[in-house]
Amino acid sequence: MNAQARMFEAVLKAAVDPIIVIDGAGVMLNANPATTDLFGYSNAELLGQNVSMLMPEPYRSEHDSYLERYLATGERHIIGIGREVAAERADGSVFPIALAVSQVDLPGEPPRFTGIIHDITDRVDAAARLQDANERLEQRVQQRTDELRVSLAELSRSNRDLEQFAYIASHDLRAPLRNVKQGVGLLDHHLQTTLGEGFDDEANELRQLIDQALGRMTDLINGLLEYSRVNQTGELETEPVDLTEVATGVVEALVHEIEDAGATVEVEDLPVVDGNRTQLRQLLSNLIQNALRYRKPSTPSRIELSGARGDDNWVISVQDNGIGVAADQHERIFDLFRRGHDGYGGVGIGLAICQRIVERHDGDIWIESEPDEGAVFRFSLPDANLRADA
Ligand SMILES: Nc1ncnc2c1ncn2[C@@H]1O[C@H](COP(=O)(O)OP(=O)(O)O)[C@@H](O)[C@H]1O
Ligand SMILES: [Mg+2]
């Protein structure tokens, strides 16, 4: 052996990956130790045999025709390209390999081919595990989505039930409440006529207590009824509504309360929006009534209504110079039955109604305020013109 041949042998021997040399008929002329290690054959078992013995079916049967076709036509399948195929060990086990085949031409000799084999079991396993994990993940996501869909359906049903209940309860409670009021009135009359002078201060105080409780209950029941009406499902009937007109009407209807509070209410130019007139009227009415109710005893109340353009909506503001609301209450005051100040006689339904109305109009409502610094309630409504174009 000359130096070059020895060098070639040494390289083959030292190679980590199996390297096989075959002739044009597919017969193995050389196989390095990495080949015998990986496939479990001895060198003697391999040399002189067709390389197809290292492949599982169907590659085994097809292999000879690949080589023949390549030699006849030059059409490449693996040669000079390299690809991932299956290999078979002496014990019959099949495993994935990356195979790179190249043609070796020596002057005056028939063409030979070298195949360099790289065992890719680990990589294929990892890919399979990844795919497996992916599939499990997708299954989990699907399962969670289904569960969420079910709870959502249950939730919206229980919401509807609750609204229905609130409506029926508040509606049906009105009749007995009326009876109690009438009964108390009759009892009052009866006691006054029979007791005469005996109807003393204490009796008067008790009567006032009953009146207050009855008034509060009336407010609660009416509030609940209003709330459940706003919540009634079904399409919201809308029309172009001139908010300046609506606000002016609300101020007229509240003229006595405004006078009693010594307040001034200023209505600037407000936009025409696409909405439900009754609900928008209720919205402005609730906000103005709150502004009147939560005024400072020492300062004359000033209330101002204004509107401004947002990007694709209108923002309406109702500003007062009253007692204000602490930041930690800004979200909560919109909850049903939530009251932020004691001693003002509210029942905590007004803003919940406002929020529901604004939501039904695809808008938002929020407060900007600090204690003692007045409050601005702002709500947004989609621009009627933009919505019509859409
Ligand atoms: N303009 C306002 N200024 C200060 N606080 C307000 C104002 N409007 C509402 N609030 C606070 O928000 C709470 C909830 O308001 P609302 O839902 O209308 O219920 P109610 O007025 O019946 O208490 C009120 O109890 C009050 O503390
Ligand atoms: Mg209120």
Structural account:
- The protein is of the alpha+beta class.
- The chain has three domains: 3-119, PAS domain (Beta-Lactamase); 145-231, Helix Hairpins (Orthogonal Bundle); 239-389, Heat Shock Protein 90 (2-Layer Sandwich).
- The chain has helices at 3-14, 33-39, 43-46, 59-73, 121-195, 201-231, 243-253, 255-261, 277-293, 350-360, 384-389, and strands spanning 19-23, 28-31, 83-88, 94-104, 112-119, 239-242, 264-267, 272-275, 302-309, 313-320, 365-369, 375-382.
- The strands form three sheets. A five-stranded antiparallel beta sheet has the order 2-1-5-4-3, with helices on both faces.
- A hairpin with a 7-residue loop joins β4 and β5.
- α9 (277-293) runs antiparallel to α10.
- It is rod-shaped.
- Residues 290-291, 294, 320, 322-325, 333, 338-341, 346-352, 375 line the site of adenosine-5'-diphosphate (ADP).
